[in-house]
Amino acid sequence: MEILAVLIDFVLHVDRHLEAFVAAYGAWIYALLFLIIFIETGVVVMPFLPGDSLLFIVGAMCGTGLLDFKVAVPLMCVAAIAGNQSNYTIGRFFGPKVFQWEQSRFFNKKAFMQAHEFYEKYGGVTIVIARFMPFVRTFAPFVAGVAQMTRAKFTLYDVGGGLLWVVGVTSLGFAFGNVPWVRQHLEIIIWATIFIPGLIAIYGGWKAGRKKKNEQQHPGA
After folding, report:
1. 32 closest CA partner among 69, 68, 76
2. Distance between CA 121 and CA 71 in Å, rounded?
3. Residue % of the chain over a pLDDT of 90
4. Counting beta carbons within 10 angstroms of the beta carbon of residue 102, is it exposed (0 to 12), middle (13 to 18) or buried (19 or more)?
5. Do 189 and 103 form a contact (C-beta atoms < 8 A)?
6. Which of 140, 132, 161, 150 is nearest to 205 (CA)?
7. Structure confidence by residue, pLDDT tens digits, 154-180
8. Residue among 131, 120, 46, 33 nearest 81 (CA)
9. Residue-wise pLDDT tens digits, 52-98
10. DSSP of 17-28, one letter per residue?
11. Per-domain residue ranges for the chain?
12. Full-model pTM
């Protein structure tokens, strides 16, 4: 529980933690950013690390001169693309066994199935869409690997989606992250970036699952 509390505090106050890290360790902040983005996108059991909020805050910090936009953005793009490639490779290698896993503390099978349904419905475009959806963006490349999506096709969506996500969200933070109203309501904005896309993903998975169930019950309808 203590670890969970620390993690939640980091996610909700990522701006303070990053600023403290810069003050203490300087340029090592770029290594930390790379690590967080890579792990959040590249390890299927780590979907709870900050993604959108981190990019937004990094953009805001670039706007104040604490970070260099020209260094941070390319580095995080590489991390996001490489992370997805890692996740895809894991899914492609271990995927056939994953459906035999039971619910555990390290793997949420229900969340995985929701991501699977979402992927099945929207196909390869999910790789791009999922970049903007917490939790789903961690599972989508894994599911692409499980589904044996070709590496070339996956890489096309991976690179395009990664660039759009990192450059887009970081640029928003650069432009608006230091606006007084945004700074005052930053915690609410962070919660919104977590829950709103998450709810959309859950609804998409539920709707796809319901449609599949109806088709099974009424095959000729």
Report:
1. 76
2. 37
3. 19
4. exposed
5. no
6. 140
7. 899 999 999 999 999 999 988 887 778
8. 131
9. 888 988 888 888 888 999 999 999 999 999 999 999 998 888 765 65
10. HHHHHHHHHTTH
11. 2-215
12. 0.72
Take residue 192 and report the two structure tokens written for it.
């919104």
Look up tokens 């169930």; give the residue: 213
Dihedral of CA atoms 74, 80, 83, 84 in degrees, nearest 10, equals: -130
Q: Extract the tokens encoding 176.
A: 């608006």
Helix (H) / strand (E) element for 190: namely helix 186-217
Q: DSSP H helical segments within the chain, as ranges?
A: 2-12, 14-25, 28-42, 52-63, 69-98, 109-122, 126-129, 136-146, 151-176, 180-184, 186-217
The sign of the dihedral angle between the CA atoms of 192, 10, 28, 40 is negative
Note whether 60 and 72 are within 8 A (CB). Answer: no
Are 158 and 85 in contact by the 8 Å Cβ rule? The answer is: yes
Tokens of 71: 């260094």
Which amino acid would we find at residue 36?
Answer: I
